[in-house]
Amino acid sequence: MSTDTKRRPSFWMRLVGLPLLALSFFLAAGSALAFADWLPSDLERYRSYTAAVPCPADTAPRRADDCLRQVPYTVERAGRESAGKSQTYRVALKGGPFGNGEVDLGSPGELSGWLRPGDRVTATVWRGEVIDVAAHDRRRTSENEPRDEPQMPAALGTAGALLALVLLGYGGVLLTGLGYGRITWKRHVWPLVGGLFAGPLIVGLLTVWLHVPWQAVPPVIVLGTAGALRLFLRRDEPAAPRSHRASGTPDPVR
């Protein structure tokens, strides 16, 4: 047995295992929440929105209306605003029965100068939220519009579950000492953690773009993670011994 496998974590390294275990439980709870609440909520919201019909003209507007209502507003201010490294076009609306306040209309594009304070606009409102804004022969959907993108919560929920397993396993290694030295943070855990941050995000974006059913997202991420784990473990396996034979030595007679 190699001396590497006889190593045991120090007292302080064992203490590091405790927050890793706590973080793994937190990630597991987040993963469960993504599949139990976030994903079903997004699916229901999109289906309800696509099935919504215009509200009857003779009904009073209510915030909880499940129909599409055209509501007039007055523009309080409008323009580009920074959102991290990107920019977005925001409009502040007032004068409506509800839905007053800022509305994010996404990338500014050619919207510069489109709306000015005091302009009257007509907005489509659904469940008390402004879905789109129309004025000056142009209509622009807002970030409130439900979208058919369940792949992202599926990808992030799967990533949370796998990260929880990785941290739970390594936290157990630090606390018990089993496998310590053979399984290391630098060679095994950190590459998996980094891959589980970037990989599922890329998979989620690609599947949204390609309109892949969300049910296919978790298996793809799980298989990719299993393949990466197998690769990391195989590279640490000792190479098979090779027989050395002098050149020119004839093969034995059979």
Automatic annotation (TrEMBL):
It comes from the Bacteria. The chain crosses the membrane at residues 154-177, 189-210, 216-233. Keywords: Membrane, Transmembrane, Transmembrane helix. This is Uncharacterized protein.
